[in-house]
Design a protein that fits this description.
The complex is a heterodimer. Chain A is α/β, with parallel strands linked by helices. Chain A contains three helices and eleven strands, in the order E-H-E-E-E-E-E-E-E-E-E-H-H-E. Classes of the chains: A alpha/beta, B alpha+beta.
């Protein structure tokens, strides 16, 4: 059996997730198609095998969360915390994503074709996020490692208290957070943006929609790394 | 938590089906708000001189056995009012040609435990404790007709679980508000409003927001101006959904701490805390689905 369908209008979500956790790896199922997700929470969370999950419709909270080696594609929008704490693999949202997309991710690739809400990539610990649209305020807050490519605009306080994550933004940045700064793009940065756009498939879908040369690099000024007693709470 | 739902039908032919379309939306938000539920429905407005008052007797000793007919006789006897009363258990809608304030004052004096839910030419309001499914069945929500409605499922955090602290809250006439979130300065807002003669009926934080916005509207602000002042005066987490006789309005706090999603077709605009509550709506697969941005105003006309 290579392919399984789950109609969430007929089958409870727990049955789908139990199948993905236990039976799919044991039976060598390669693809699971989920229909009528109807905004259910926790769809395909905790994948731990290289399976391909397609979700046809709108997903609720935490879709594809904690993913390890799986591929989750949502043909619709995703609620709060899509791909939260992903370890590896790939999660793609064909529509928009709500708040906290890719929060605390450690690895893998999260692609959001549309806009992402607030706090996208908050506390990013590794892995890559590519957003075809814009991101809301406080995105990449305290992001420690990993990369984000934002093809649209960024809201307020982008990259507040950044550690070593690097952000590439094509559009306007409403405001940078504390300690985030715009830095010159190097050849390695252009190559990184191209690599991530290619990986996201955003280049090919619409031809050469985004030129890596149009992106700005945002990284940490590292001035918050050490306590400055003279700062007097002025950052 | 708490769940909010709103529905506005664009075609008059859908108005008789408003309640039927909404009930699954309300029940869909049960996990977000299992302790109380309520809704305000806006109907064709009454004639200029007429008003309807929604009343709740669940906090009276008689409860659902309240003598509504007796109330009708007393209104005639004491105030000379010919009122029609549509009663359903602990709920009734009193309709009459009246100036509402003296009548409401009389009701409060004569029946201090009878709760006045709403006043206006278009609004009918229902709210009670219980799960959304229980409350919807208790008041036959599926049979409600109208152009738009605002509903709420409550998981109480800021005040006790009682019928009068359930949402929607109303103030003035034909205005109601439901709230997902919690305000951090409701007492500051109340202290600011009280010198203007504004009285509060509960200790609920949402009531402060409701009375603040209605006060601004009464002072002459249009809805957009009132909401802008709301952004400045109200601190905390909120997604607010408001209803007036001819509008639905939605705002979210600048941090978008509480969710909202909108689905729009040629037939309707539907708003809910989560897509789960929109999934059953007709032709939802072709609806324009979007997440309202923080600190933006969304106003739809009925």
């Amino acid at each position: 059996m290579e392919r399984m369908n789950f109609d969430l209008a007929q089958v409870p979500l727990r049955e789908l997730n139990a199948f993905l956790h236990r039976d799919a790896p044991a039976q060598g199922v390669q693809k699971v198609v989920v229909t009528n997700p109807d905004g259910a929470h926790n769809i395909a969370v905790g994948l731990d095998c290289p399976i391909d999950v397609e979700v046809h419709g709108h997903a609720g909270y935490y879709a594809g969360g904690m993913n390890k080696t799986g591929t989750v594609t949502i043909f619709g929008s995703a609620g709060t915390g899509v791909a939260e704490n992903m370890m590896s693999g790939r999660v793609q949202v064909k529509g928009f994503a709500s708040n906290g997309a890719g929060a605390s991710m450690h690895g893998g690739l999260l692609v959001i074709d549309g806009d992402a809400g607030l706090r996208c990539g908050i506390s990013l610990k590794g892995g890559d996020i590519v957003v075809g649209g814009s991101v809301g305020s406080f995105s990449a807050f305290m992001a420690q490692a990993g990369r984000m490519v934002i093809c649209g605009d960024a809201g307020d306080a982008l990259g507040d208290s950044l550690y070593e994550a690097v952000l590439y933004v094509k559009g306007s940045i409403k405001s940078l957070g504390a300690d985030a700064r715009i830095e010159p793009m190097s050849e390695a940065d252009y190559a990184a943006v191209k690599e991530l756009l290619d990986a996201a498939g955003l280049q090919h879908d619409a031809g050469l929609k985004h030129d890596p040369r149009d992106f700005k690099r945002v990284a940490s000024a590292r001035s918050l790394y050490h306590w400055n007693a003279d700062a007097d709470q002025e950052y | 938590m708490c769940g909010i739902v709103g529905l506005l039908v664009k075609k008059p032919a859908l108005r008789p089906r408003l309640g039927e379309l909404m009930v699954p939306m309300l029940i869909g938000m049960t996990e977000r708000g299992p302790d109380s539920a309520g809704l305000a429905v806006f109907t064709e407005p009454l004639a200029e001189s007429r008003r309807k008052i929604s009343l709740y007797s669940g906090m009276c000793e008689e409860g659902a056995d309240f003598n509504w007919l007796g109330l009708s006789h007393e209104l005639k006897e004491h105030l000379g009012i010919d009122a029609t009363i549509a009663a359903q258990g602990n709920h009734a809608i009193v309709t009459a040609s009246i100036v509402p304030e003296p009548v409401k004052r009389w009701i409060k004096e004569r029946y201090p435990k009878l709760h006045i839910l709403s006043t206006g030419r278009a609004i009918d309001l229902y709210k009670d404790i219980g799960t959304p499914a229980e409350v919807a069945a208790r008041y036959a929500f599926s049979g409600l007709a109208g152009s738009h409605l605002v509903g709420h499922t409550r998981m109480a955090t800021e005040s006790a679980v009682t019928p009068d602290r359930a949402h929607p809250f109303t103030a003035g006439e034909d205005f109601c508000l439901v709230h997902n979130g919690s305000l951090s300065n409701p007492y500051g807002v109340r202290r600011m409003l009280e010198p203007h003669g504004i009285r509060f009926e509960t200790d609920n934080d949402t009531e402060a927001a409701c009375r603040f916005l209605e006060w601004r509207l009464r002072e002459g602000d249009d809805l957009e101006t009132a909401l802008q002042r709301g952004f400045e005066a109200l601190d905390g987490f909120y997604t607010f959904l408001m209803g007036t006789a001819d509008k639905l309005a939605l705002i979210r706090d600048p941090f978008a701490c509480k969710p909202a999603v909108v689905a729009e077709t040629d037939d309707y605009v539907a708003i809910a805390s989560e897509f789960r509550s929109l999934a059953h709506l007709p032709d939802i697969a072709h609806a324009k689905v979007f997440e309202p941005a923080p600190e933006e105003m969304y106003v739809w006309n009925a």
